[in-house]
Amino acid sequence: MCRTLIILVALFLAGCNIRTNNATNTPFPTPDIPRVQFLFPTNNATVLEGTDLTLELLAEDGGIGVARVDLLIDDLPHQSGIPEVSLAVPTFTVRMNWLAEGVGFHSLTAVAYRADGTSSTATIINVEVIPRPASTPE
Predict the structure, then answer these.
(1) Maximum CA extent, the chain
(2) Planar angle of CA 113, 59, 40, nearest 5 degrees
(3) What is the pLDDT at residue 27?
(4) CATH code for the part of the protein at 35-130
(5) Percent share of the chain, pLDDT over 90
(6) Using alpha carbons only, how large is the chain's radius of gyration in Å?
(7) Which DSSP symbol is given to 89?
(8) For residue 92, which of 59, 65, 79, 113 is within the disulfide window of CB 3.0 to 4.6 Å?
């Protein structure tokens, strides 16, 4: 009886050891990638054709900082902005101009970059350019 009890305890303890030794390794957390958002205009905004629109973007990076923000209009490079105070900053607000030409919908894409080339996920908004009424001067 005592021998059976010792065997059962040994098996139980061996089972406990097996479970604790099979723990999976937790990966080290990786730094977040930069983030960028449009502050102005908002998605699906409407503007009159010929308007010189000032776009405002906010880029952030908790890692080494934002070094550049690129703006694409209809998937074509339009303009880039860089911080004025240093090569990379944790938070970066950039203003860029776009002359709203071509009636219809246009996609505006913003991408933020770190100095090492790490990019944010592209942020895309749509802006509709509508014809200027004949009586409205540019």
Answers:
(1) 105
(2) 130
(3) 52
(4) 2.60.40.10
(5) 69
(6) 28
(7) B
(8) 59
Q: How far is CA 132 from the centre of its chain?
A: 34
The neighbour count for residue 73, using CB atoms within 10 Å, is 20
pLDDT tens for residues 78-111?
999 999 888 999 999 999 999 999 999 999 999 9
Joined tokens for residue 127 = 């802006």
Closest CA to 128 of 96, 101, 95: 101
Residue 80's SS3 state is strand
In terms of Cβ atoms closer than 10 Å to its own Cβ (0-12, 13-18, 19+), residue 75 is: exposed
Question: Is pLDDT of 7 > 80?
Answer: no
Domain map of the chain by residue range? 35-130
Asked whether 111 and 70 are in contact (CB, 8 A), the reply is yes
| pTM confidence score | 0.74
